[in-house]
Each structure stands twice: as structure tokens, then as C-alpha cells.
Design goal:
The protein has helices spanning 3-34, 55-75, 78-81, 97-128, and strands at 45-47, 50-52. The protein is mainly alpha-helical. Strand 1 (45-47) and strand 2 (50-52) form a beta hairpin.
């Protein structure tokens, strides 16, 4: 083989190493924030009648409860169900259509990127084994 072929092989090997290393680092970072990708739970925090997947979820639930208590204190019973625009009409707890569509779109994009990463990893895994 000539010199150019060795350079291209070395460059291809370096690019492959960088891509695989980056994917491993991003996967471990995602798992550290969102938990394991395969759906299994590493942590179960039992807080009375509720079980949280990790400490962050438990803390978020505590803060949301605290925020509701503060709103009840600040606004009184009006916060519970009084509609400011239309007195006497119940408050709708449903999310806006835009928010529902944005949530479903973000879920779709997250699933597509996760499956794309898994596909690329499976290709390289097949080549390595």
C-alpha cells in the first residue's frame, strides 16, 4: 500500500474513535440527567405513598407542592377554581393545543434521535464484533 492509503486509514480510524467516544460520553451524560435509556430504574426513592425515579424528581415534586401552597396563601381560595375572565365558570385544567403539539413533537424528535444513535452504534458494533 502506498503512503496515502495509510493516511486515509489512520484518519478513518481516528474519526471512528472520536465518534464512538463522543456517543459514549453523550449517552453517559444523558443517563446521568434523565436516568437509564433502556427504561430500567436505578433508583427508587420512596416518599410515603409516592415512588420517585431519582432524587431530582422527588425534589421537583416537593417544590411544586411548595409553590401551590404559596399560591394558595397569596391568592386565597380564588386560586382553587375561580376564573378571572368569566366569574362563575370553572377553570379549565387542560393544556393549550399548541403546548400539546409541542410536547408531542419534542417527544417524537427525542425518540428519533435516540433511535438514530442506537442504529449508528449497532452498525459500528456489528463491524467490531
Amino acid at each position: 500500500m502506498n503512503r496515502k492509503t495509510w493516511k486515509l486509514l489512520l484518519l478513518g480510524g481516528a474519526i471512528t474513535f472520536v465518534v464512538l467516544f463522543g456517543m459514549e460520553m453523550s449517552t453517559s451524560g444523558i443517563e446521568r440527567i434523565y436516568g437509564p435509556l433502556d427504561g430500567s430504574r436505578q433508583y427508587d426513592y420512596d416518599d410515603g405513598d409516592q415512588v420517585y425515579a431519582n432524587e431530582t424528581d422527588r425534589r421537583i415534586a416537593e417544590l411544586e407542592k411548595e409553590l401551590d401552597d404559596i399560591r394558595r396563601i397569596a391568592y386565597g381560595e380564588e386560586f382553587v377554581g375561580e376564573n378571572e375572565r368569566l366569574p362563575g365558570m370553572p377553570v379549565e385544567d387542560e393544556q393549550a393545543a399548541v403546548n400539546r403539539m409541542a410536547d408531542s413533537t419534542s417527544g417524537l424528535l427525542q425518540t428519533a434521535s435516540s433511535k438514530g444513535i442506537r442504529f449508528v452504534v449497532s452498525l459500528f458494533d456489528g463491524l467490531m464484533n
